[in-house]
Design a protein that fits this description.
With about 210 residues, the chain is α/β, with parallel strands linked by helices. It folds into two domains: about 140 residues, Rossmann fold; about 60 residues. Helix content is about 40%, strand content about 15%. The strands form two sheets. The protein has a six-stranded parallel sheet with strand order 5-4-1-6-7-8. It has a two-stranded antiparallel ribbon with strand order 2-3. It is globular and about 55 Å long.
Length: about 210
């Protein structure tokens, strides 16, 4: 039985793809390029600026244009961070059930603190989440377990008593390395979830309730 539920953010707790894609397409528009449809970018949203710049501009981190493009992307995203972003269907009910049972829940994401501070406030989660651990909270990003272990420490709960939900293979790898139970979510941006060897695979947020 879990004492705490930890969520990845993009593609797990919230559907952020439209706002992330808007920032990418603003960069394309400035260069006279046509808009890339949301559905073509959706699967890259969990990888943030890196994934979207690769998918939408063909630019990798080692490219000389990557750094200024990344800075522009993050600026545009921060300016319109919660236009279409919403909790996934069924997630508000799941969070309420977790709280009703007296359990803690938190967020562990590779997103930066500055961006997360904006979006959790807009979504009304800032006063509800027991912890929000971001990509710059520790020196390491997922799939390294540091951020998950940091979250368990903040909650004063043993990692083995936590379950971590994610929509990317990195999430499952990080949970495994941290000694937490893992759940792959089918409503997010990931593909081939069955190959990740998660402890559970959830089709809908409500499916977690029987595992608490």
């Amino acid at each position: 039985m879990a004492s705490a539920v930890l969520f990845d953010f993009d593609g797990t707790l919230a559907d952020t793809a439209a706002d992330l894609s808007r920032a990418l397409n603003r960069i394309r528009a400035e260069r006279g390029l046509e808009e890339v449809p949301l559905e073509q970018l959706r699967g890259h949203a969990s990888s943030g600026a890196r994934g979207l710049l690769q998918a939408g501009m063909g630019i990798l981190p080692e490219h000389e244009e990557y750094k200024p493009l990344r800075e522009a992307f993050l600026k545009y995203y921060a300016e319109n961070i919660c236009i279409d972003t919403r909790l996934f269907p069924g997630m508000p009910e799941l969070l309420s059930e977790i709280e009703a049972r007296g359990l803690l829940w938190g967020i562990v994401t590779n997103k930066s603190t500055s961006l997360m501070r904006l979006v959790v406030k807009e979504l009304g989660l800032d006063s509800r989440a027991a912890c929000v651990v971001c990509g710059d909270t520790t020196p390491h990003l997922k799939p390294h377990p540091a951020s998950l272990l940091h979250a368990a420490g903040e909650l004063n709960i043993a990692p083995a008593d936590c379950i971590y939900l994610g929509d990317d293979l990195r999430d499952i790898q990080a949970a495994r390395a941290a000694g937490m139970r893992s759940a792959a979510v089918a409503w997010g941006y990931g593909e081939r979830l069955e190959s990740w060897n998660a402890d559970a695979m959830l089709q809908r947020p409500v499916d977690l309730i029987s595992r608490l």
